[in-house]
Amino acid sequence: MKRFVGILLAAAALVALTACGGGNDVSPPVVQHPENKAIWSALGGDSAAPAAVAGVVNAAVTGLLADPVEAPYFAAVTGNTSKSSAAHDTPARLEACLTLQFESLLGGPYTYPGPVKVTGDVDAQPEMCQDMTTAHNDVGVPGCVFDQFMVDLVATFQSKLPAADFAALTSTTNGTYALTSTNSAGIPVGTKFQYSAVPTLFNLRGTITSATPGGPLYLPPTVATSCSS
Amino acid sequence: MLQLAAARSTRIMAGFIAATCVSVAAIGWLHTSHGRQLLAKLGVPCPVDTVDSNVVLSMRNNAISRQRGSIAAPDRPALGLQLDRSTESEVAEQMTRDNVHCDEISRGFRYLRCRGVPAQLLRTNGPPVSEIWFSFKPDRTLMAINLYRRDMTESETRQSWRIALQSLRQALGVPTAMTGDTTLTSLMEKPVAVARVEYAYSDYVATVTASHLPYGGLAVREQYMSATTAH
């Protein structure tokens, strides 16, 4: 027991000393999706890509919040409007976290989830984004709302990015990265994309809509159950 | 003595871990559809069902003010209804009269949602409508119409797209913005593609979006929205 306490104290001292000595160190940026680095470079690299991604996310979030059918799902996470560090938060934090996620997904030197600066935050501390399961597990996003967000997001990407970049992003030529999430309509599961961004995004669907297991079953337009609530 | 204390600590630790696991499993299950049904029966609503209408209205006002244009629309087509004027009861009466079954929904705003509707019953043409949502402001006047057709064949998609665009073009002329291949040719060929036509005015935004994505297949959405900021 005494030996255990001794080891614990020694480890704590080591950690404390490391912390003292490392105060000015800056961790090297981690590229979470190095397979998409070519996309990041095409968007302008570290100097221009962050602004391009932020612009796309801003336009997509604006479209979402302007739509009265989709907006309430984002109002459901805005319980605390005075400080952005609460678990359920503001559109500004949503936008900041989405921007970080896309910066990471598109091959930038970022990792999601991670810390972000939130517009209008009352303190100077960065806020930590939540992982996708935690962020959505009590929002109850139906599959149809997730899909609508994807449509708006793709439309925004398509309108804001140079045509060649968008074509590369959605290319299946010599594809390596597959759609794995189950779907009942549209692009078949197993379709392989050249870059991982698109399949990674769509494969999140099961996580985000886990509150509705299996998601909605899309059926022909005449069937009333074409999208679960 | 020490052994006894260690055994007791192990039991306490094991109990704590077991309790944590059971709690996590229970919380997880409560987020499934079955769990949510149980919570609903117990009177615990889904968060989105109890959204404050003022919060969602403020968010929506802010967003639509960034999306709208600068000049007033010459007309505000909305499937024969009047944005900011037609009331929830008038729309409900019209749907009932036209034999369209709709559900009343409240999620911050109030809605009428109708599914699997023949287009003619909505006074338009083309393939049947998967869903149509009528959204109402807090004063119960019509704020927006969202019309969805999903998982269509290529010809149904082209027909839906053409009818929606023709109708807007007749009323409003040339769109204020277009995105993607509006002939839909590449939409059919590409794995992820969207075509969009938008009319954005200071008091009205109409958007027609055709999409080909992993979920929903070939789909067309029509949005007719008031762009006036409601209070």
UniProtKB/TrEMBL annotation, chain A:
Keyword field contains Lipoprotein: yes
Cross-referenced PROSITE patterns: PROKAR_LIPOPROTEIN (PS51257)
MF annotations from Gene Ontology: heme binding; oxygen binding
Leader sequence residues: 1-21
Keywords: Lipoprotein, Signal
Lineage top rank: taxon: Bacteria
Name by which UniProt lists this protein: Small lipoprotein YifL
Organism encoding this protein: Paraburkholderia fungorum
Lineage, opening ranks: Bacteria, Pseudomonadati, Pseudomonadota, Betaproteobacteria, Burkholderiales
Automatic annotation (TrEMBL), chain B:
Keywords: Membrane, Transmembrane, Transmembrane helix
Top-rank taxon: Bacteria
Record field: transmembrane: 12-31
Protein name (database record): Uncharacterized protein
Organism: Paraburkholderia fungorum
